Fold this sequence. Notes:
Strand content: 15-25%
Number of strands: 24
Largest sheet: 9 strands, mixed
Helix content: 25-40%
Distance between the termini: 45 Å
Amino acid sequence: MYDVIIIGAGVSGCAIARELSRYRLNICVLEKEEDVCCGTTKANSAIVHAGFDAATGSMMAKLNVRGNEMMDKIAADLDVPFRRNGALVVCTDPEELGGLQELYDRGIANGLSADSMEILNREEALAIEPNLADDVVGAFHAKTSGIVCPFLLNIAMAENAYVNGVDFFFNTEVEKIEAENVNPDGERIWKIRTCNGEYRTRYLVNAAGVYADVFHNMVSARKIHITPRRGSYCLLDHAAGNHVSHTVFALPGKMGKGVLVTPTIHGNLLIGPNAQDIGNKEGTNTTADSLNEIIEKAAKSVKNIPMRQVITSFAGLRAHEDGHDFIIGEVEDAPHFIDCAGIESPGLSSSPAIGEYVRQLLEEKMKPERKENWTGTRKGILNPASLSFEERNELIRKNPAYGRIICRCESVTEGEILDAIRRPLGARSLDGVKRRTRAGMGRCQAGFCSPRTMEILHQELGLPYEKITKSGGNSRLVIGRTKEHSGEEE
Length: 490
């Protein structure tokens, strides 16, 4: 029996778990995948938006601005890389220059300071971003926009929640939710049936991404509808990482902010996404048409993008609710059921504020006792490249694993991979290692380091090679043995 159960271990669910771990509450997170950060959070633009885009007065606008304000401290506390590189929204049609002023005015209405934004003419924009397309006639500059690693932010929040007492159950898919009244006042206990048995809780938080409408509609007569909105991306090599220094957007349209071109926090270049509404909540495949679309649109904002440097492409899903706003709060006809639904962009930017908002809501309802020994900090995986030559040599002398390179593309050492496996909520798959260390994210896309990473997973976890997966489930890389030697299979 739990006080609070959270469905979903994406960045919203883990932000909520971390905030609630401040209290003397029995809390758990149920996640259908094999790790945290396996849904929407693992495939997005990795942008911390300034807060000028969302409609004034919307939940999106309020939580985006607050989440942006919180990001410096939470990144420092949780040892997550974050940089305020600024964003440029470019205009290529002189007749649409008024749209830049609209963004500025909306930013002011949403609570941004006047000195954090400016409107630039073409020459001013080129002075800070020389590779803008020839047709660009002006730009809106949002100075507080930033870039972050979505994987590490999500993982850090989960680790911090875990060390503060939150339970995590992976490979645990929710199948049915029912409520039972336990006293004349109507207080409920929620019963959650999963593929791994039944869980019970006083309060249930629905942070299930594109599936949030499914669980909401199980308990409420007032239905909501979420459309999976697919966006495709191309990721370019480090060699292209300096092509732009700001995040460059086109003026937004009815389907969102449009295709962007941005450096990533780890030194790559990212372009995308487009927006395609689909019916499949697992439809993260890319198509040639979608990739061609983002390449064509990106070139309208930034010229000479070195597309020969593309090392991979991928697609993610945004949980687009019909009302195009976050739905966060207690469901009116389902007491103690808290929605955190419709979390699409700027969901990553808003995640610290989403956690804070739900924590304050439940604090008011539950009146829980605060912990005296709560810790809000966490130390990430040591990156030897951040050390001086002397410090790195001393590290290797003490622990030779940090002198053995496993992933040559990203210079990831055995020591980092061992840390990723051994730390709280450690990696259990190749993708789990990749999200924590970047092993496999380079030019060869894990072509060379996978066997060695599998060997380390085998040694550390005691898993047969046939049970080591790329990303959980049936994503096995070894499906059988081919010969026998000395009476034993090899």
